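Let us work through a complete example step by step.
Step 1: write down the sequence.
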Amino acid sequence: MSGLRYAKGEPNDESAFQNWIRGTDWFKEFKSEYNEEPDLDTKDYDYRAAWKAGLQPERDPYDNNRFHWPSSLPSGEMLKSAEHPTAWKEYFMRDTGVNPDALGLKTPEDATIYLKQRMGDKPTPTEAPNKKKKSEGALPKVTQ
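Step 2: predict the structure and record it as tokens.
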């Protein structure tokens, strides 16, 4: 995870972080939707590093306009752990330049099938077999 993470217990940073995050619309939305506070100490996402980098959650049109945090820092360093259930989406977007949600892809397996079809490994139902060369329209494979 991020090198920006500070040791929990640095009173000035922790207090400022807690005050800030508890005042965000994301925090309020989470509490309202799930009737509990989010786990800010989860191993799956580095909220403190996002805060230190000045990042904010944004509305996601593919998830009923709920708030979502960025998957990575502007440097490319991941804020989500490899075990985070949607970390694969960030890698897909880096490899293809396309949001998998925009394509209706819901799982890493869906993404792999999509990429194989685009690379010509298996024709789509509307594509004639061997119509495309493997190099035509190929997208890079998803890193998982």
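Step 3: interpret the result. The chain has five helices and two strands.
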